[in-house]
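REQUEST ID: PR-0412
SUBMITTED BY: lab tech R.K.
PRIORITY: routine
TASK: structure prediction, single protein chain
INPUT:
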Amino acid sequence: MQLRIFFGGCLLVTSCLVLMNFTQPAKISVQVDGKFIDLKTDQQTVGGALEECHVEVGPNDIVKPDVLTNIHDGLDIRIYRVQKKTKEQGYSIPYSTIIRYDNSMPKGNEKITQAGKEGKRNLQTDMLYIDEVMIGLKETKKTVEEPTQKIISVGTKRIIQPLSMTAKVKNILNMGATGYSRHVQSCGKWAKWGRTRMGLKAKYGVVAVDPRVISLGTRLHVEGYGPAIAADIGGAIKGKRIDLCFDTHQEAVNYGYKSVKVYVLE
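STATUS: complete
OUTPUT:
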């Protein structure tokens, strides 16, 4: 190739060689959404190549190598689709039931003084997927509403039966009365038997006496206590002493000591 240059009115003729550099397109492979895309591209970066083959990359997707990597022949590009899914589920929290003993209510009576109500709790499950395969799971529990306890009041006040008008009273004794129960606090080592001297089960209505004063098996009516049967004895029960059985140790303690009339029945 000749190059003509005019310089100072003179024509200079010279020759030069122009070199043209032709770059061949790079052959690359793109793996995405379960497909393989073979591509010849003149793009300089991975991001440019993905735009050329119309592959969209989501904000959470992973591109390997990254989008700024330079293209070279034989490059394998992999796009991992990353998805975050959240599921919320509500369920109930069962309420508990508590018993409160009420000495102002007759024994055996019950009433609901506070209705129970279930609570509410939400369970949020966050799941992480890569190419539709779950790789992570996180559960978060949040109580929306606490449960309300159910309260049942149970009466403990014993209604004393009056002496029947038709009862035949053989004798009336003024006696000192105490309380006991079949539990170990009252009976010590004998508590495991739970039986009286006559073999009856120790319970309310069974009393201990001095057999020299009241014979075992005698039916009685104790003032402030009600009908009873003399069925037990005790080391400290001497003379005009009577020991009244209660169903609980606390009732026996609460009774303390009282002077009472004891009606001996036929």
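NOTES: The longest helix spans residues 46-52.
REVIEWED BY: pending
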